[in-house]
Each structure stands twice: as C-alpha cells, then as structure tokens.
UniProtKB/TrEMBL annotation:
Family in the record: Belongs to the peptidase S1 family. CLIP subfamily.
Gene3D superfamilies: Trypsin-like serine proteases
InterPro entries membership: Peptidase_S1_PA, Peptidase_S1_PA_chymotrypsin, Peptidase_S1A, Ser/Thr_Proteases_Immune/Dev, Trypsin_dom
Organism: Dermatophagoides farinae
GO biological processes: proteolysis
UniProt keyword annotation of Disulfide bond present: yes
UniProt KW Disulfide bond keyword: yes
Domain Peptidase S1 as annotated: residue spans: 30-328
Protein name: Serine-type endopeptidase
Amino acid sequence: MLVIVIDSIQAANNKRFQSSSLRRDQDFENIGGRKRNVFGANNLENRLEANFVAAIVYVGPCCDYKDVALSNQLKVHCTATVISPNYILTTAVCLVQHIAKNPSHFYVIFDLNPLEKWRNFAVNNNGNFLARRIINHKVHGKYTTTDPYKYNLALIQLDKPINLTTPIVAETPLPYISHYRPYCKEYSEVDYTDVYMNHCFFYGYGPNRYDNTTHRTGILKRFHLPLLNSRYCRYFDATFDLKSNLCAGHKRVTNKDEKFKGFIGGDFGGPLVCTVINVRNFKDVSKRLVVGIASMSALVTLPDHSLRLFDYFSSTRFFRDWIEDLSDRNRL
C-alpha cells in the first residue's frame, strides 16, 4: 500500500519519507504556471463567517513595500486561526520553513482578499483592513524536521491585540478551540463524538481550480470536508497517529487525472470547524468547534490500486493544554 504525501512545503530530504512507504510528489496540477489544489472550494463573500481566520503574508523588508507588492513575491504562505486577542495558531512546518528567519517581513492580515488589500496599500497608500505584525513565535517542543507532521503546531504572538468585543466580531463569536471535555491521555484516539462529523468546513487561502489565472494565491475559501473515522484512515495508512491527528475527506475513489488534491501553499494552518451535536440552527457559528489545524494531505493507494485522498489535521483537543498554557499566560 503506497501513501503519497502531497505537500508543496515538505522538505525534499525528509529521511522518514525516503525510508518508508511515504514519498513526496511534486506533480500537482499546474494551471497558468501555478500549483493549485483541486478542492473546487467556494470563495467567501461574507467576512463575518470567518473573523477567526487570517493570512500570513510575505510583504518584504520594511518599509518600502511597493516592489514586493507588484511582484510574485507577495504571497500568502499559510493560514492562521485566531485563538485569543493576542495569539494565532498555524503549522510548525510553515513557520520554520518560511517565517522564522525573518518574521518582520510578514504581516498577519484579516481579509477575504489580503493580497489585493495589501497591494492597494503599498502602491496607493490607501486601504481599510486589519493587519498585525509578528513579535514572537514558538513551535511545539516535540516538533522535529525529521518527522514534521507529528506535533506540527506553532503559536504566533501579535504586536497588538485584536478587539474581539466589537459589534462585528460579536455577531460571529470565535469557535471553541477544542472540545468541551478535556483531553484524556488514556484515550487511544481523539474523541469527536460531540460534533456532527459530516457538518465540517475547512478554511484556507490556498489556490484551487476555480481561481482566475491572473490571481495569485490568497483568496479565503471554504470547503465542505467531513471528518472520517480515524481507524478507517489508520487502516489504509499505518503512519497515521490516532492520538494527535484527525482525518478528513470524502469517501470516494479519486481519479488519476484529479488525484492532486489536498492542501497547497496557503492552506496549511487553516482550521477545520465542525458543528456541535444537537445544535438547533446549523448557521449558528457560536455552536461550532475548531477541531483541527491543517497539517498535510496524503494520497493513499488501496489494495485494488484505486486512490483515496486523506487530509490530516493536528487535533486541537490533543494539544489543548499546550495551546492554552502558552497563550493564556503569555509564556512564549
């Protein structure tokens, strides 16, 4: 059984994937010279639905941003999820590979189309949007570059708090960062019995097949992505960690000509948000939970040689203590 890790930011010299049945594949669908996933996700038209999502954008060194803004260097490197007024959550892989060396070259921008807003600001010196700088960051203590999808989480501290009590934000409260019940270390796998597994949505800034070829990556999208039973994913992928990860996807065979789906570029760090059990109104976002943070996609070859796509998320429930201990107490 073969598992292909379809991750555009995975280090090519990862020894684990070279020495096991996991391997990296770079042959993503290429349209207009850009890698893109084939989610077919919907562009969001109402910012209220995703006030808890931000883009981490490379804007270049301070303070003349015009040249970068007019080039292909302007880019969303990853999605981030707001967990408190001062902190956002993303992947350790993205932070280590792209942001950590020069965090001052990045802005965290809260907008449906952050690149357009930043370009207008840098070139024309106008624009009305919410942006924050990065002043500190921390990857999980057990994260390693040799096994990057275990403990693949990072916290980022913003230079100024986000006002979560404004009327606009109050209309769409941030989803709970994890489940109501604390994680119990004796569990053999993540418990998600308090959410509707089929009523989950992924938010990310990665490009997909419906992007206009003139657009660069960086428009916030929403994609229906149901949770799968973790043991089902483990059956097909022996490397899947039942305790710290969640598995999502659609139970259908993936055709060869569309096999390169999954998280691309700006999608990493995006949240998977699920509706809680017994909710009266599915549109009530206060009854949704952030259950996972996008970590990797894997294309699995089944015994009959058909292909199945799984999307793996770092479980916010498993990492709840780490998240809350650092963010609540400002201990980065």
